[in-house]
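[job 0412] stage=fold_complex status=start
inputs:
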Amino acid sequence: MKKTNNIILETALKALLFFIVLYSVYIFTAGHYYPGGGFIGGLMTSGAIVLLLITYDIKTVQRILPINYRIITAIGLLFAIGTSAGSLFFNVPFLTHAFTHVELPVLGDLSLHTATLFDLGVYFVVVGVTMTIIQTIGEDE
Amino acid sequence: MTNLIILPIFIPLLTGAILICLHKKIAVQRIVAVISSLGTLIVSSIIIHKVHQDGIQSLNISSWDAPFGITLVSDMLSAMLVCTTSIMALACLLYSFKSIGNERENYYYYPVFSFLLVGVNGAFMTGDIFNLFVFFEVMLMSSYVLLVLGGTKIQLRESIKYLLVNVISSALFVIAVALLYSVAGTLNMAHISERISAISGYGMPGIVSVIAVMFLIVFGLKGAIFPLFFWMPGSYYAPPAPVLALFGALLTKVGVYSITRTFTLFFYHDGFVFQLLSILAILSIIVGVIGAIAYWDVKKIIIYNIIVAVGAILYGVSVMNPASIKGAVYYLIHDMIIKAALFLLVGNIIAITGSANLKKFSGLISRYPGLGWTFFIAALALAGIPPLSGFVGKLLIIQGGFEGNSFFGAAIVLMSSLLVLFSVMKIFINGFWGKNLTFEGEEKAPVKWLLISPIILVAISALYGLYSEAILPYIGQASDTLLDPQIYIDAVLKE
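[job 0412] stage=fold_complex status=done
writing structure:
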């Protein structure tokens, strides 16, 4: 591959990537009370990885993030299934969620909800699917 | 257990997710897939038993009460269809082991197979119209993958057609649901039914008829009824035999089930749409038999027979009296079993002869008597010869037709049997009798293994016909719900 000198892009990426990932995590966690959630959060995280892909090439990114995205998709699915399978053990209707309020030292009153785990599943599936699509098309000769 | 009726959806979903992780280990995949489909089969039989004893089972997902959350409903019709689906799945799975090939098995064949079952079972069991759409999409996306997997030229070409048609019909589905939602203001099927009968107290409003016709177009595209079947002969010609059997047995039947469900639950006040349905059903039968007798290609003949069966079932639904609905339900299940068996047998023939063209082979019976006679019995069952399973269904449909003074339609159904019999006997006479030819690569075909699933299916079909007396109470229970939507509404809304 021809070596081009895109030092500005690479430097900008170092700063930007951090903010994009942080923002995607914020969007993901805020989903219950504000606009956002697993889908948009996952898309943004994939956006960050795509930015990496644009700056470097597929092999470099594969070295930085040695992840098999198909497995990520499966893990996401298993998260969603596992969250809903909890209801099978407690003998309540399928997909019934539970939540509890927890008092934490720094963060204060938090409501922990199993819907977040479901959302985490969605997040992983979205990241996995998006990256699988982009990688397989990118690697195609 | 509260969650019993979710299990036919849950088990394949879990299997699919696990199998993605195991996609290079073919032996493990096979074992897991077989265990899961056996599990689904057992669970669905338990559900049938439970529905038979305690009436319709419904489950409010997430503990939200009926019209507000998504409800899964398992009445006798859907329970029986889910059970039949599991049997089909198991048979097609066993058949796949020796016929689908390692390249396909390595590339997520079994996970996608499981997801297809999620979609089909979900579509049969859901009680929410938008959820039905979602399960349709789950089913269709898996079917796109199964259709294109392998990547031969014909598969790529036909997948594009199939995909285009189904994307368009899905868009129409969303539009139809949007229209229905703007009229009824709810998505729960039982609640929609209540609302529609409330507004049609002073005669059916025109908009509801429009929505009914839109649903007929949408489900007709999925279920291949007369003017909307054009995509099917080509698309179903492309995939390998077990996939084709799965498609032929399940996918169009989901469309037929959806038409039956929506028409008997939502639009039963509306005489016009039933008349339309009956005309289209009769035309489907006619077009189907024309196609079935016209071709000399074994796959094409069976594919056109799907259209005939869809027409016969929907004709039974459109007449809408106890006999015809019973006949339609009975025939629906019979047809799922026998179509799968026939497609698997055709796959077997093609594995031996390497060709689907009837003029290129003959005399198979002398070397493959088992295959020949299984095909013969399957052909008789398809046409509806008395001790076998096709008979009772067609008899009831015709009886219903005569009772409903729809003589022309009943006569067409009756005559179609003759031509259906002719079309499959053409395969038997030309392919199995005659000069004994040998074929290249014939010894390599694992005929014995490939014959297991069709024999099981044909045996089930024969038992289904012989013990129709024992099965009819179940069929009766299924048709009661279809004839009286109040049973369904009461079971879901629990008033």
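[job 0412] summary: Chain A has a mean pLDDT of 87.
[job 0412] exit 0
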